[in-house]
Write a structure and sequence with these properties.
Blueprint: H1 5-11, H2 14-26, H3 31-35, H4 42-54, E1 58-63, E2 66-71, H5 73-119
Antiparallel strand pairs: 1-2
């Protein structure tokens, strides 16, 4: 699965991650209700919600003068799947690096033993 850079750029911001946490735990929220729980202004929350909406992580429903935001579970699942794929790819890379380091260490040890044998 290819990585969606816009999606991960949106998730990369700690304030937006906290907003997603709040929306998930509370079942939704407005810019006003979120700003009461975060150390940023309502206007900043609204801007962050625009970013999350643009990548499909949240969707808004008009309720009077406010907009109620809810997390899109399918898009969140897509983000989680991408994260799992990236994690698996890094695990494989790190495993290859570990094997290479072990080979280098083994060769250095073998070369050290050969030098010792020659000196005797």
């Amino acid at each position: 699965m290819p990585v969606d850079d816009d999606l991960w750029s949106a998730i990369g911001d700690p304030t937006r991650r906290r907003m997603l946490d709040l929306l998930l735990s509370e079942g939704g929220g407005t810019a006003t209700s979120l700003s009461e729980r975060l150390p940023v202004t309502r206007q900043a929350v609204a801007k962050h919600l625009v970013v999350l909406d643009r990548v499909g992580l949240v969707h808004a429903t008009a309720i009077g003068r406010e907009r109620q935001f809810r997390v899109d579970p399918e898009q969140l699942a897509r983000a989680a799947a991408q994260l799992a794929d990236v994690g698996a790819a890094w695990d494989a890379r790190l495993h290859r690096i570990k094997r290479m380091a072990e080979q280098i260490q083994r060769r250095a040890h073998e070369n050290g033993q050969q030098s010792t044998e020659k000196e005797q």
